[in-house]
């Protein structure tokens, strides 16, 4: 099927020559004498490309190009100017024309114009194909993100169920050592579940917003420990930092272990005190995680409390996401610092 060209020019004789030349090249020419008639014909649809003369009755082709831009009409335009109007041709290109051809009286004018039209059509088809491909990529990305969010939602729910089952085992077991071990396992599972909840409620499922994640994690842990009559006042101060989900899991596990130890051992008996969690960005690529209290204090070289598994987990994960963990000696209480490498 022949492609249709809208030729806007008030020179009827030239248009008739154009109809003959383009018919041999497989195109159909429809004619408009001015911009008003050209817009009316364009509204009817079916136009593949426009040939636009500069001088028109009552206006110029530049006016028509500006109208096309205002109305967001993306039909390719080949601009025709006189031989002494190079600056006009440049203005036409700036205004949105795909190409221009200098009008001459020689035989080479029609082959040049036909070639310019064919090139404009080819470029327009390439741009349309690129836009379709980009739309498909965006749609595929959106579908993948929705699917990943749903997966994270289901994983979080499944982990929450596992944590609840472990909690039932804790309540039904009489051995205190077993109960303590199960409670620690439950807290670790909750840390991972909380991370997955952060992912499916985030705009970017590849990143975890640490302020929301750590605050939620601390709140859930405090509530869980309160069931064992270990009440705590946890204060979170977290910068707006987003990190990849695999690193977020490690940070969450570290926070869980350090908070659990602080809740259990910092304020023995009926003593009460504050436990502070801080995540502060120190540069574009680094941050520092701090968990501290004002309690009994902790000697990392002293006797191991509990199974020691939590300390090994913290040490291993701290090395995997930064330079490791260090415990600062203070007048009272414990301060643990972990340097984080935010680079992926």
Write the layout of secondary structure elements.
Blueprint: E1 3-8, H1 12-24, E2 27-32, H2 35-43, E3 49-53, E4 55-56, E5 59-60, H3 61-70, E6 77-81, H4 86-94, E7 99-102, H5 109-172, H6 176-200, E8 207-209, H7 210-226, E9 233-238, E10 242-244, H8 245-265, E11 274-281, E12 286-293, H9 309-321, E13 322-328, E14 335-341
Parallel strand pairs: 1-2, 1-3, 3-6, 6-7, 9-11
Antiparallel strand pairs: 4-5, 8-10, 11-12, 12-14, 13-14
Helix pairs in contact: 5-6, 6-7, 6-8, 7-8, 8-9
Q: Would you write up a description of this structure?
A:
It is a single chain. The chain is an alpha/beta fold. It has two domains: 3-134, Response regulator (Rossmann fold); 207-341, Histidine kinase-like ATPase, C-terminal domain (Heat Shock Protein 90, 2-Layer Sandwich), CATH 3.30.565. It has helices spanning 12-24, 35-43, 61-70, 86-94, 109-172, 176-200, 210-226, 245-265, 309-321; strands at residues 3-8, 27-32, 49-53, 55-56, 59-60, 77-81, 99-102, 207-209, 233-238, 242-244, 274-281, 286-293, 322-328, 335-341. It has a five-stranded parallel sheet with strand order 2-1-3-6-7, with helices on both faces. Strands 9-11-12-14-13 form a five-stranded mixed sheet. Strands 4-5 form a two-stranded antiparallel ribbon. It is rod-shaped and about 105 Å long. The model has no long low-confidence stretch (mean pLDDT 83).
């Amino acid at each position: 099927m022949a492609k249709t060209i809208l030729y806007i020019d008030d020179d009827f004789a030239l248009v008739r020559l154009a109809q003959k030349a383009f018919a041999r090249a497989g195109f159909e020419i429809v004619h408009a004498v001015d911009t008003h008639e050209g817009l009316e014909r364009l509204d009817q649809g079916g136009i593949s490309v426009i040939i636009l003369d500069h001088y028109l009755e009552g206006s110029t082709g530049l006016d028509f190009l500006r109208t096309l831009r205002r109305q967001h009409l993306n039909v390719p335009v080949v601009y025709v100017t006189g031989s002494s109007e190079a600056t006009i041709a440049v203005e036409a290109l700036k205004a949105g024309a795909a190409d221009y051809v200098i009008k001459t009286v020689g035989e080479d004018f029609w082959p040049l114009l036909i070639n310019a039209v064919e090139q404009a059509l080819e470029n327009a088809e390439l741009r349309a194909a690129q836009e379709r491909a980009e739309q498909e990529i965006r749609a595929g990305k959106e579908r993948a993100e929705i699917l990943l969010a749903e997966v994270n939602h289901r994983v979080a729910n499944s982990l929450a169920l596992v944590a609840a089952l472990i909690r039932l085992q804790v309540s039904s077991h009489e051995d205190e050592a077993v109960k303590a071990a199960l409670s620690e396992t439950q807290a670790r599972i909750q840390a991972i579940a909380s991370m997955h909840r952060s992912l499916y409620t985030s705009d970017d499922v590849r990143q975890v917003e640490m302020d929301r994640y750590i605050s939620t994690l601390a709140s859930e842990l405090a509530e869980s420990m309160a069931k064992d009559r270990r009440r705590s006042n946890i204060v979170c101060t977290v910068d707006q930092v987003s990190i990849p989900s695999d690193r977020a899991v490690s940070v969450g596990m570290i926070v869980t272990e350090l908070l659990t130890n602080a809740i259990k051992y910092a304020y023995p008996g009926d003593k009460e005190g504050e436990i502070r969690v801080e995540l502060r960005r120190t540069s574009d690529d680094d941050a520092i995680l701090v968990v501290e209290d004002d309690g009994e204090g902790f000697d990392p070289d002293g006797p191991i409390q509990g199974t020691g598994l939590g300390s090994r987990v913290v040490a291993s994960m701290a090395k995997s996401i930064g330079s490791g963990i260090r415990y600062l000696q203070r007048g009272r209480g414990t301060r643990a610092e972990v340097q984080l490498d935010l680079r992926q």
